[in-house]
Amino acid sequence: MDPTGARLGRLTTPHGVIDTPAFMPVGTAATVKGQTQQDLEDLAVQILLANTYHLYLRPGHELIRQMGGLHTFMAWPRAILTDSGGFQVFSLSELRKVTDEGVTFRSHLDGSEHFLSPEKALEIEIALGADVVMVLDECIEAPAPEQRARDAAKRTLNWARRSRDYFAGHGDAARQMLFGIVQGGTHAALRRESAEALAELDFPGYAIGGLAVGEPHASTCEMTGVAASRLPAERPRYLMGVGKPEQIPDYVALGVDMMDCVLPTRSARHGCLYTSQGRMLIKNAKYASDPRPIDESCECAVCRRYSRAYLRHLATSGEFLAIILNTHHNIHFYLDIMRKIREAIRFGKLEKFRSDLQARLK
Questions:
Q1: Structural domains in the chain plus CATH codes
Q2: Least enclosed by CB within 10 Å: which of 24, 108, 113, 251?
Q3: Active site residues
Q4: What is the pLDDT of residues 39-68, one digit of tens each?
């Protein structure tokens, strides 16, 4: 363990070993936008995230089950984590109603009404066959009053118990790991209580949810630290939906092992590229005749081959290839940060890596 509290680990799944701390690219609808599965293998992605809510609505979990599960359906041989749909339902606040039984929501696709309970979410995730599956949780807005956060944390804990019981009767613990989710808003006492109560339920792994939804970064770190300190040291910890490149070492230093974020892919689609010297907006006119790669210290396939001038031309012309190449570079950048973080932890030098990275990217 690094002096900061950061950890090195290996998470073993039926579809391969994941070196942690790990970053998971987001493949919402069983695809990482702009990348083929071969591209992801070439990038050495060990695990990616897919979305229960979206796959339930289209093409449907029963179809995917009949096709042999999500790995076969999307032709991805490595590990997959599926979230439970809790965050997507949270983001559909105008289209949903939450009760202790579950969530009634209307599809963002066609307005059809659906009911998602903790048991239904697990039924879908078992059918999808992901290696790591999440319990259904109630994700709330930030900031939220203490009573609102307390009610959501209590409901999430009850749903975790129901999920654990359903999985015990219908799941296969040899094939899938079920993670509980800590909630509690930005209230330290609630986060502490939620983590301790979940730890007693003895999940194979734990997620920290409901953060990076609008609260300051300092609050995200404070709540993450409180939760992580109350979770079992020998179990993986997953911080959901984070973060910016310069923030990643902060979370790792708090004992986080896994994280995911749409930023590298979403930013790529808008012409925002991450480099060792900060963000680059490739459509800027100053790159029109620039023969250099995106980042002269980057070893990705895009930086080895293409100039800034060409990438700007693609972006300003609206060419599909712009998104493909931008995404490839950004995912490589994130995974390279994780590789360097693991190396820094191995030598007990995460603090130096963090300060150097944040000085360059500020």
A1: 9-261 (3.20.20.105), 268-361 (no CATH)
A2: 113
A3: 83, 260
A4: 999 999 999 999 999 999 999 999 999 999
